[in-house]
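Input.
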Amino acid sequence: MVKQPIKLGDVCLNLAWGRPVHVITETGQTVAEWLEANNYNLLDSYGNSRFDTAEDDRVFDVVYCSSLKSRPSKTYAYPESQLGSIESEAADAGRQVADRVVVNALEELFERTAKDDEGAVAVLEWYATDIGYTDEAAEACELAEVDRLVGGEI
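Output.
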């Protein structure tokens, strides 16, 4: 089984406790950088010590998926090694659900942007690529172009 890369919006399991979490953001820090910024060593955590967490692991902020009645009250920082994408996230012909959402949102943005400012499409595509959605941006841009050429009706 290939471990899926973790992205914003993914539902993952906290592998130490078996509880589902929702990824809110990637902190942009490694475990070592997070320690320096927050004065807390994620490597010493009981859960993280069981998963060969390394100083260069990426760190994500997550909230627990508790129940229908509860609201997230706190975020938790977990290293990548302690999070695992839930299998249902890859059930869409190998595509993560969050990636489908990104493609749909980018397609809509490309369509609207092309109507107002063709040059802004390149900026939007660059931004999507810069944050790690290269394939999704290309797919969305192509879909938007097809919609534009055929008038949105296929």
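The chain has five helices and five strands.
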